[in-house]
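User: I'm preparing a small set of examples for a lab meeting where we compare how different chains pack in three dimensions. I only have the primary sequence for this one, and I'd like the structure in token form so I can line it up with the others. Please keep the answer compact; I'll paste it straight into my notes.
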Amino acid sequence: MIAGVCGGIARRYGWRSRNVRLAFVASCLLPGPQFLIYLALWLLLPEEP
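Assistant: Understood. Below is the structure token output for the 49-residue chain.
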């Protein structure tokens, strides 16, 4: 979405990136720290060349 976190997770596990993005957006509708986890993954996941 913003930093490629969903796309990176999808590539890592062989999932479709659209499905991972939809799951993330759906999870943001629920209470919890989803956006903070996204920001942490943005900082922790290595960038692809």
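A couple of notes for your slides: Residues 5-44 form one domain. The longest helix spans residues 17-28.

User: Perfect, thanks.
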